[in-house]
Specification:
Distance between the termini: 26 Å
Helix content: 10-25%
Shape: globular
Structural class: alpha+beta
Strand order of the largest sheet: 1-2-3-4-5-6-7-8
Mean pLDDT: 89
Strand content: 15-25%
Low-confidence stretches: 2-20
Number of strands: 8
Length: about 230
């Protein structure tokens, strides 16, 4: 999900009372030192090594290291995963999960980099709409820009497309009121935009925004927090 003339927002997880508001959480700044995931995302990443490492981490560590990835790491990972496939809706919302499921996210913006992206299965008969969802970016940005509703469709071989050109057909449980992406400042952020998602591991996906056939300089990583 992109931000162009205003900061880019990507979306995911219901904040807990003990967590800092999204607006105050760390942006692109990384913790001192380099972790193992960052080391694996050097100039020539090996997708199999990245997948094995992520799958071997516990849930908390996986979120921490995934959210440490800066623009260079995210770009390299997205490019390295081209053509690998293997991403299906059940990874974003496993069959055992009822209702919405949030993913922690970090995009490549210099500010407002942390977000949460929420997915849930639509009612039966949704056609090619595999999932519905929206973005959580904190009260201030959501008021100004909107929650960025979307539907998820298949894309190519084993990729998924987050499509902001269409919003869910009905309100989502626990979500803000439905709002067209052309409303408010969302017309500069979400309207007409799509995100291509690629699988990095069982819990982690990386995405890049595009508008039509034009790729945007906007990447993000999502991580499911469960073990």
């Amino acid at each position: 999900m992109p931000f162009r003339s205003i900061p880019e927002i990507a979306p995911g997880f219901q904040p807990k009372a003990v967590r800092a508001p999204l607006e105050t959480r760390a942006g692109p700044r990384e913790a001192p030192g380099v972790n193992r995931l960052q080391e694996l995302l050097g100039p020539r990443p090996d997708p199999l090594a990245v997948e094995a490492y992520l799958d071997g981490l516990d849930g908390a560590r996986r979120v921490t290291e995934s959210m440490s990835l800066g623009p260079r790491h995210q770009r390299r990972l997205f490019d390295a995963l081209r053509g690998r496939g293997g991403l299906f809706a059940e990874q974003l919302v496993p069959a055992a999960v009822e209702g919405p499921l949030a993913h922690e996210g970090r995009n490549t913006l210099p500010a407002f980099a942390r977000f949460e992206k929420v997915f849930l299965r639509p009612p039966e008969g949704g056609g090619d709409e595999l999932l519905w969802g929206y973005n959580r970016t904190g009260p201030a940005l959501e008021t100004a820009v909107g929650p960025g509703y979307f539907v998820v469709r298949p894309h190519g071989e084993g990729e998924l497309l987050v499509d902001y050109r269409q919003i869910p057909a009905r309100p989502l449980p626990g979500a803000p009121p439905l709002l067209p992406n052309e409303a408010r400042l969302g017309r500069f952020v979400y309207a007409g935009t799509e995100d291509v998602l690629r699988r990095a591991s069982r819990h982690v996906v990386v995405g890049r925004a595009r508008k039509g056939e034009r790729w945007l300089p906007a990447w993000f990583v999502l991580c499911r927090g469960d073990a």
